[in-house]
Amino acid sequence: MSSLPPSPSAPPGAPAPSTAMLLHLQTVPPRNGGLWIRHGFKVFQRKPLALTGLLAIFIFAAIAMMLLPFVGIVLLLMAWPLLSLGFMLATHLVLQNRTPTAAVYLAPLKLTRQRRNTQLQLCGAYALATLLISLLSSAVDGGSFDALQRLLASGAPPEQVAEAAADPALFWGAMTRLTLAALLSVPFWHAPALVHWGGQGLMQSLFSSTLGVWRNKGAFVVNSLLWSALVIGAALLCSLLGGLLGAPQLLPLLIAPLGLVLSTVFYASLYFTFVDCFMFGTPRELPQS
Question: Which residue windows are transmembrane per the record (predicted)?
């Protein structure tokens, strides 16, 4: 396949028709996990400022939400599924030679009332599940993670921080948090897109997303391993540059923009995971812009 076929839906930046697209579950080879990343970089190269700006807008909004006690955390967690879907819509717009704006975050809420309500239910379910994971992880580590965060925020001596970090309960709490968060991502990976483009209900979208990830677990494993290698490689490169320049204090200045770019590419690549699993498949090469 040499180019992307036209999408059967309306342009993602605008409200879609009330009728749902016909989606079908597909199985792709494991190597497509690397293809998703490659296409994410290519999409980023076409509109780097627009896509990075979208993520920056979400980050600034997240900071503003965190200023609200408790309610801000809940609102931030509820907004997370809309971040992934918003970037799917943004990627689709870039492939249509259009420039995405912050409107992609609100587009999923401008369809039919049924789809809007389902999206809000997904957001609420994700926030509730994440809070439950946090409470369970805190119970496992006995509050050692919160204690470590307080020490870091207060500028405690390195010896005291190292002693707190060596607590075995902290390790098991972190493992619990990471494992449950990874499991939670499976049903929510495609669910917002399945509601937006497929018109599926809450439970159907969660089940379909889980089935799609499971059927293509080889590609997702490859994708996860490659992303891990990229992140570790980027961190090592920044450390090496800081050492060569003889200015380790510059390390945060190197890591921050690189982390923003990699995060943007990751979210831009999510569109291709969806079309590979449920739509027409990812092409080997993207159409020319």
Answer: 48-67, 73-95, 120-140, 220-244, 250-274
Interhelix angle 113-141/202-215, rounded to 10 degrees, is 60
C-alpha span between 179 and 175 (Å, rounded):
6
pTM, two decimals, is 0.84
Phi and psi (nearest 5°) for 248?
Answer: -60, -20
Please report, for the chain, the start and end positions of each structural domain, with discontinuous segments joined by +: 32-278
CA distance 275 to 281: 5
pLDDT in tens, 27-70: 999 999 999 999 999 999 999 999 999 999 999 999 999 898 88
Give long-range contacts, CB 8 A cutoff, 24+ apart: 211-215.
Answer: 211/25, 212/25, 212/277, 212/278, 213/186, 213/189, 213/277, 214/186, 215/25, 215/26, 215/27, 215/277
